[in-house]
Amino acid sequence: MSAILDYTALATELEHEHRHLCAMAELLQLEQHVLVEGDDAERLSSLAAEKISQIRTLGLYAARIAAFLRAQGYADDARGLAECVAAAPKSLEIAELRVKVAEKAREARQLNILNGALIEARLDSVEGRVAKLVGAQAGTSDGGADEATRAAARRALGAV
Questions:
Q1: Which terminus of the chain is less hemmed in, N or C, by CB atoms within 10 Å?
Q2: Both ends of the chain: CA-CA distance in Å?
Q3: CA–CA gap between residue 31 and residue 27 (Å, rounded)
Q4: Rounded CA gap, 86 and 95, in Å?
Q5: What is the CATH number of the domain that holds 13?
Q6: How many domains does the chain have?
């Protein structure tokens, strides 16, 4: 296989990775909307399954790109990819593709962090309500707001 064909394969993998990162970002935006709008646990569960599928697919692209880099004699890390991209024919626009992939990955990562914060806030709210219920059952005057009651509520929700 010639070097041009090898670089074309890399360009194709980066294009596919970019498309899947775009889909992941859209999925994360939808998840954010569902988290903000209300209690649609079924939809959140469905979105979680879709996210897992996207993560697996993105992992496959990462593995194929790493294998390509190794086959070309580069390290299968960010430095190896940068060196490979620098050596690629400019006509394939691999450098531009790499930038697009990196930007979309950053966007998806930021959305995921924000969604995690939204989930944590919802969980805190649920823990507070559970703590009040546990406190009410125990007959505490403050509705169960003491630390021991909150800790019991967290354990009940699966937190350590």
A1: C
A2: 54
A3: 6
A4: 7
A5: 1.20.58
A6: 1
